[in-house]
Specification:
It contains 3 helices and 29 strands. The protein is mainly β. The strands form 8 sheets. Strands 1-3-6-5 form a 4-stranded antiparallel beta sheet, with no helix packed on it. A hairpin with a 2-residue loop joins strand 5 and strand 6. The longest helix is centred in the N-terminal third of the chain and has 21 residues. It is elongated, with a radius of gyration of 53 Å.
């Protein structure tokens, strides 16, 4: 029974396999037997490709301008127009107009790039409109589809933003630089100084040097200094132009000519003298110092200077100056005489470095200190000293401060004995530990 069962199973499997083989047409073609090489089937041949349509020509268009619309336009600026394709040049030139009208010439870099060059500078601070109408045609014959407007504002005038000394200034230091600053660059950075224009002229013409401190600031340095007490007029260079071609603005003002102004330099004057005249009396070793409001000519000042004993005899001494020649010092060769009148003088003929004489002469009197004496004491003789108070002696002349204690004695002696000198008030302070209700004698 078992063997029959196996035989039946084998027969069923063979039948299933045969039925599957017959149901798969891709395995065998009709008439083919298993084991034969099948024929290869090729796909059908495709239809021929259709030709692409011919592109249609495009109308011309302005794609860019340099400078771009709305930008500030330098007065001598080139304006470059870029088209999207080659153009018929004569139609573009005929279709281009400017409002207000600006004369100029056309320069084609190629058939799609046009440059307009103004023949003269445009008017500052004005509105300029470039219009390209539909008469402009491309090389393919098509016209501009719609007009194009490009609007610009031209650059402003070259203007002064600062002037020193200020117009109308007086008592100006003759050593001061004359300086102007503009609102726009006038010279390039690193340019040759010899080729750069002067920003102004000065009347009367002083000696000195001028330079552009930067692209828009010009300065003149007088050397020697300007004359004191004189009127100088600064006149702007009317042909001055900024780097972008802007002319100097004509600034007309009432009571002042266009683009010029004036200032007055200070007259040479003595502004301080030391020692002061109200000191009372001066020491025997005094040094005399005269301070001026401007640089002086040292040879002229020394020739007109003197310290006269009794108002008649010149005192010998040495003169020195500070670096700016605005301060002269005189030191006598010997100590002055006591209780004697001296006159410090400087004649009006003394000149400043610019050549102007003094506005007024100097004559100042002094009395030297008399023989040394105590003129007062605090507390006064026979008075009562408070416990916190120093004994103060006032002298009529200065004393040497070295070893003052050897010249002062208090009886009876006091602990912590000290002596101090105040040179400004000519006073001597005698300090120590004084006892209450005690009589003291100071010698």
């Amino acid at each position: 029974m078992i063997r029959k069962t196996h035989l039946v199973r084998y027969l069923i499997l063979i039948l299933v396999a045969l039925s599957l083989a017959c149901s798969l047409p891709g395995l065998f073609r009709r008439g083919e037997q298993p084991g034969e090489t099948p024929e290869v089937s090729l796909p059908p041949t495709s239809a021929p490709a259709q030709p692409l349509p011919t592109p249609q020509p495009l109308p011309p268009a302005l794609v860019e301008s340099d400078p771009p619309p709305g930008a500030e336009l330098p007065l001598e600026s080139l304006i470059t127009l870029y088209f999207n394709q080659p153009m018929r040049r004569e139609t573009v030139e005929a279709a281009l107009s400017l409002q207000p009208a600006v004369a100029g010439q056309f320069d084609w870099r190629d058939d799609s790039t046009l440059v307009f060059q103004p023949s003269q500078p445009m008017t500052p601070e004005s509105e300029i409109t470039f219009t390209l109408n539909t008469g402009a045609r491309a090389a393919n014959g098509l016209a501009l589809m719609q007009p194009v407007n490009l609007q610009y504002r031209t650059a402003g005038y070259l203007r002064l933003t600062q002037a020193l000394p200020e117009p109308g200034a007086y008592d100006v230091d003759p050593t001061s630089a004359i300086l102007v600053t503009f609102n726009r660059p006038v010279v390039p950075l690193g340019g040759d100084p010899a080729s750069q224009p002067a920003a102004f002229s000065i009347d009367p013409t002083p000696q000195g040097r001028a330079e552009w401190l930067n692209t828009s600031t010009y300065a003149f340095y007088p050397d020697p200094p300007l004359e004191g007490g004189r009127t100088y007029t600064v006149r702007m260079n009317q042909n001055l132009r900024s780097l972008d071609g802007s002319p100097l603005e004509i600034q007309d003002e009432p009571l002042r000519p266009a683009n010029e102004w004036s200032f007055i330099t200070a007259s040479p004057q003595v502004v301080a003298v030391s020692p002061a005249a109200d000191l009372g009396s001066i020491g025997l070793d005094a040094t005399f110092v005269i301070t001026f409001n401007q640089a002086m000519d040292p040879l002229s000042a020394e020739a007109n200077f003197g310290l006269l004993q009794g108002g008649k005899v010149n005192v010998a001494g040495k003169v020195s100056w500070n670096d700016r020649y605005t301060q002269m010092s005189f030191t006598p060769d010997n100590l002055l005489d006591r209780d004697t009148r001296y006159v410090l003088r400087l004649n009006q003929q003394a000149q400043a470095r610019g050549g102007t004489p003094l506005e007024a002469p100097l004559a100042q009197e002094y009395i030297t200190v008399p023989n040394l004496a105590v003129v007062s004491s605090d507390p006064p003789e026979g008075g009562v000293k408070q416990y916190y108070q120093s004994v103060v002696l006032t002298f009529n002349a200065p004393v040497k401060e070295e070893n003052l204690k050897q010249y002062v004695r208090v009886e009876p002696e006091i602990p912590n004995f000290q002596v101090y000198w105040n040179p400004y008030d000519r006073q001597m302070y005698v300090d120590g530990s004084y006892s209450p209700a005690q009589n003291y004698t100071l010698r």
